[in-house]
Amino acid sequence: MKEKVQLFGRSLSGMVMPNIGAFIAWGIITALFIESGWIPNERIAQLVSPMSSVLLPLLIAYTGGNVVGGQRGGVIGALATMGVIVGSDIPMFIGAMIVGPLSAWVLKKFDKMMENHVKAGFEMLVNNFSLGIIGAILAVLAMYGVTPLVTALNSVMSAGVGFFVDHGLLPLTSVFIEPAKVLFLNNAINHGILSPMGIQQVEEAGKSIFFLLESNPGPGLGVLLAYCIAGKGSAKSSAPGAVIIHFLGGIHEIYFPYILMNPLLLLATIAGGASGVFTFNLFNVGLSAPASPGSILALLMMAERHSYVGLLLGVLVSTAVSFVIAMPLLKFMGKDTSLEEAQQKKDSMKKQAKGIKDESTASDGAASEPAATVQVQGKIRKIAFACDAGMGSSAMGATVLKKKIAAAGLEGIEVIHTPVSSIPSDVQIVVTHQELGERAARSNPNAERVLITNFLAAPEYEVLVEDLKKRNQP
Description:
This protein is mostly helical. 64% of the residues lie in helices and 5% in strands. Helix 1 runs parallel beside helix 6 (174-205), helix 3 (48-86) crosses helix 4 and helix 4 runs antiparallel to helix 5. The protein has 17 helices and 4 strands. It has a 4-stranded parallel beta sheet, sandwiched between helices. The two termini are 46 Å apart.
């Protein structure tokens, strides 16, 4: 079930993440030039509404269609989505997420049906007219069929959110958001659910607290600071570096393994998140666009000009609450079980590197599969770090391994970072978190898999480098 939820969440966030730059551009224009912005400019502010109601939904639809059916899928996805855009008075992000991939799927099925039935020389004619005719039909159907459904869904969501806001219950969303983040659903929550609601609120009020519900770095920062003081072993030694990467770099995935080591620490992040939301709400804090990555610097850039005091206070309060609760939990909970598992996995990999058969498997979190279930023969030329979105923790891990490979004097090895759902076929070794092991296996079944719990300081890195020295020696 968790695997299916992750896949669904990945499909949602995968349509938004590649277009984050456009969302940031829209947010900057909004923050600067609307009537309540830093430097109000009525003419430039005319860009705000068309970008949110037309440009951003079309980009989402094209991206979703492109994932399903390539360039043709992207084109028909954007074309059909114009139906829901024209048929509604609200930004149709949810409509774009539905219509874009669905339209590409319909076209893909038609193309499959027409295979080997088109005479030579007529391929371009059939391709162009089929896309045009099917796209026109789907645009009309989307206008009259999908738009009312999405509008009704939006009304239900707005009513639900309104209930939480009117009754002062918005902090309770942390009960769901914080555990879901640790299951690597952070991008799905932030970009698939909260961002569409936030952008609609920005249209009405110029800012939105929804952009802060998931991206607040305070809860994770409090846990990491607690590890700096009360942690044990490699968790304590790696925590200070994780603090910098999390708070300034905005890569929240860095603290997820620290929670997984001691799941009761979720109590600290939930309390920290709720206190932060309460403070943001109390001071009427909001952002003008999604803060991605969730760095304190990104939050400050996207903040409405009168919100700085409340924003910083909310982050500080959530950090303090999370820290105060995490400290006793770390002191009295005993050893970090996941670190022990990581040590066992390290020993297992050492045995493999020495040619000693070992029957031990990875932890249950990785569905009990071996750390490296496939043995690639010959020299290693390409290694991939994979995380949910391919932009956060995997980028950090790839940087760490690159430095270790360079320090070892190894040459000719390319290290990339990639989404776990689309690992290139020429990758020989995949390094990913143990929670994503099964998805990595399906994405590239021919690659060796190294499953880790900490992208910043995994003990498997040293074993992998030693193994590369042996396998790539002249």
